[in-house]
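Open question from group meeting: does this chain pack into something compact, or does most of it stay loose? Before anyone orders reagents, we agreed to write out a predicted structure and look at it together. Recording both the input and the output here so the notebook holds the full record.
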Amino acid sequence: MTAPVSVIVPARNEAQTIARVVSVLADMPDVGEVVVVDNGSTDATAELARGAGATVISETQTGMGHAVRAGVSAARHDWVMKVDADLDRFDTDLFAQMPAARGPGVGLIKGAWHDPADNMPMTRLLVRPALHQMFPGLSHLRAPNSGLYVFDRSLIAYNGLATDYAVDLDIMLRVHAAGYDVAEVDIGRIVHDTRDVTHYNGMAEQIFAFFLSRQPRMLTREMVVLAQDGAQVIHHALGTIGHRLAAGVRVTVYLEDMNALGSRVLHELLGAYPTVRVLPLDDRSAFSAHANATGLCVLAPYPRAGGGSALSEAVALFEANHDHLPGAVWLMPVHDAGREITGFAPDMLPEVADGLALKQAALGALGVSIPPLAGLARELFQSYASLPDALRPAYGSLAGHRHPSVGNF
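Structure tokens returned:
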């Protein structure tokens, strides 16, 4: 049996069309419910949608992203279709091709449409060129910023979606960064309300800002963390990890001691992110990057006496993948309480802003005195490439993979 679909319809003052849109969508194959998100309407949108059989929820914060987040959260089914409320007419048979295109490994299906009155300036001049440069794995899409699509919300952390016009792109990039396919089907000719240059100017500014915010996060550079236990990760790297997770990066954490308190805390808190796996270090040899990965970032403890096997395992994992996944190994300043880390020479200060609340919660769960967020705002790493040769032989060579740059990983 095909999994049912929840259709969400963000709507603001769409009384003229909403009842017909709801009725038509409810009759489509695979549709289990229609959820209309009343986004600050001052007309009868909500009443008419409810009368047509929709579940109506209210989102008082205006903006496409806020409405989509509310609708996705309220949906009863994991497969969610997002549809505009201002469509003049559309072919429901073609719309049904989106959920019909679901299959193994597919996380999102875009509906590619054409409008004789719209030459798609956003797609031609901004979105497709940006994707070609930043996410070439999505270059095959003809209408990448289409607001009509169906996706599996269980694959992504949808509570952190963009709150403006970039939300449709954010969902697509998160599915792509999680390692799933983004497909596209033709849904025919659609006539939208006429949009002036001012509308496109505002949309372009929001989308351009979104792309700029995602570029340093390197969404398709998968992150792997190896440590003795979860406490090491929480103290020294959770801000960095959380910052990447907030944008949808896939992260795998391998721990020597899965039963330590810190490991249990880490596992519980990271369980809120669908793109995270927390596994025993013994499973490291089975690691496989996801299909859309373009690079690899590996975090491991700085070498110290009695420090366990996490670093040697990290180097082995990196070397096994380096030929097809460029990246770097970065060392965490792991130490015993009060002991100075001899030789640790940090050469990177990554961004951690979106991971600070997660780190603060983890430290609190460990019973650690929690400093203000500002006091957590630094995590330092040393590149493996700068590690003295004397510390390398016991842990692996990476001799041919020294990285002259110590920039973003």
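Observations to bring back to the group:
The radius of gyration is 24 Å.
The chain has two domains: 5-215, 218-401.
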